[in-house]
Task: inverse folding
């Protein structure tokens, strides 16, 4: 019996694929749908050991593709979203900032909109702040939203945001969009 259905974005990357393996090892009552565009960071070889697992589904696609994201939410009725998907190479963000902004910010907003429509108790009421029980949107961030640490010290969640590259600025922006969906719409989120 499947009790939870989870959308994992960017699940073919290093961290995402390890998370997929961890979840399948830990939980028997789960279905994982992995949406990954398979850019330079994604590698399906990371997932060959679980390719035949009935609890795992791979979908090649982009989180910016609203029609695809809406279709997946409609088909699978996700309980949880874990958003690993991101353009994350700092040097590439310097030469191609638009790709980072559209993927990391607009892609996150696309996922949030789909989750809001699917999970809301009243999807046609823009003021509704209640959701299906047990749903959650998890935004995977980076310490780089806080800037450069230097040789010593540490960051805390209370450290002011100070992104220094288009990559870190796009991740900080995505985090703030997720926070805004919580504050504005009451969406259950974690960053």
Result:
């Amino acid at each position: 019996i499947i009790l939870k259905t989870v959308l994992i974005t960017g699940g073919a990357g290093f961290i995402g694929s390890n998370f997929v393996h961890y979840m399948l090892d830990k939980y028997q009552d789960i279905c994982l749908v992995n949406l990954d565009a398979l850019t330079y960071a994604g590698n399906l070889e990371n997932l060959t050991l679980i390719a035949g697992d009935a609890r795992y589904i791979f979908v090649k696609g982009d989180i910016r593709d609203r029609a695809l994201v809406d279709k997946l939410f409609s088909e699978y009725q996700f309980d949880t979203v874990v958003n690993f998907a991101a353009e994350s190479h700092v040097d590439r963000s310097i030469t191609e900032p638009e790709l980072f902004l559209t993927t990391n910010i607009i892609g996150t907003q696309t996922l949030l909109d789909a989750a809001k429509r699917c999970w809301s108790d009243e999807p046609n009421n823009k003021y509704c702040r209640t959701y299906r029980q047990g749903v959650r949107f998890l935004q995977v961030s980076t310490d780089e939203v806080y800037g450069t640490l230097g040789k010593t010290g540490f960051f805390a969640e209370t450290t002011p945001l100070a992104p220094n590259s288009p990559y870190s600025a796009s991740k900080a922006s995505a985090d703030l969009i997720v926070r805004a969906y919580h504050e504005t719409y009451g969406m259950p989120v974690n960053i």
The first strand starts at residue 4 and ends at 9. The CA atoms of residues 21 and 40 lie 20 Å apart. The radius of gyration is 17 Å.
